[in-house]
Specification:
Blueprint (H helix, E strand, L loop, with lengths): L2 E7 L5 H12 L4 E7 L7 H8 L23 E4 L2 H6 L7 E4 L11 H35 L12
Parallel strand pairs: 1-2, 1-3, 3-4
Helix pairs in contact: 1-4, 2-4
Length: 156
C-alpha cells in the first residue's frame, strides 16, 4: 500500500509543486503524492525552469487549492510555508510535518531570484530523499518485524 503525501504551500506555485515532482521522481512505488496551496495560484515561471533543468516538465500543470482536497485521506501532510502551516486544515490520521524553506519569489533581482529557486529545489530534493528513505525503511522494518516469543518473559 502506498503512503499518501500532501505537500502544501501558499499558492501551489513554488515549493509544493517542486516537492511533489521530486518525490514522484524519487519513488512512485511507495508514495502517492499531491500538492496544493492555501489558494491556487499560477505556477511561477522559475519553478518550471529550474525543474526543467532536472528533466522534469511542470509546464501546463494546474494548481490546486486545499479546499479541493478536504475529503482526501493522507498519511502525511507536509507544509512548506508558515502560512500553510498556520492555515492547514486537519486531516484525520495524517502526520503533520513542517519544513521551513525560503520563498524565492519575494526576491526582486531576477538573477538572484533564479539562484534562490535552484537552491530551494536542491534543499527540497535533499529533504524528499531523506523522507522517502526513512519512510520506506521504517515500513520495511515494520513489515519484517515478527513478534518473538521469549520464554524468559512468559508468566505462568
Amino acid at each position: 500500500m502506498k503512503l499518501r503525501v500532501l505537500f502544501l504551500c501558499e499558492a501551489n506555485s513554488v515549493q509544493s509543486p517542486i516537492a511533489e515532482a521530486l518525490l514522484n521522481g524519487v519513488d512512485r512505488n511507495h508514495f502517492e503524492v499531491i500538492s496544493a496551496g492555501i489558494h491556487a495560484g499560477e505556477t511561477h515561471p522559475f519553478t518550471v525552469e529550474v525543474m526543467k533543468e532536472m528533466g522534469i516538465d511542470l509546464g501546463g500543470r494546474i494548481a490546486k487549492a486545499i479546499r479541493d482536497l478536504l475529503n482526501f485521506r493522507f498519511d502525511f501532510v507536509i507544509t512548506l510555508s508558515d502560512r500553510a502551516k498556520a492555515e492547514c486544515p486537519e486531516f484525520p490520521g495524517a502526520e503533520r510535518i513542517h519544513w521551513q524553506v525560503d520563498d524565492p519569489s519575494v526576491i526582486l533581482d531576477p538573477d538572484k531570484q533564479k539562484r534562490m529557486f535552484r537552491s530551494l529545489r536542491d534543499q527540497i530534493a535533499q529533504r524528499v530523499r531523506l523522507f522517502a528513505l526513512v519512510q520506506t525503511r521504517f515500513a520495511s522494518f515494520e513489515a519484517n518485524a515478527k513478534p518473538r516469543s521469549r520464554p524468559d518473559l512468559v508468566h505462568p
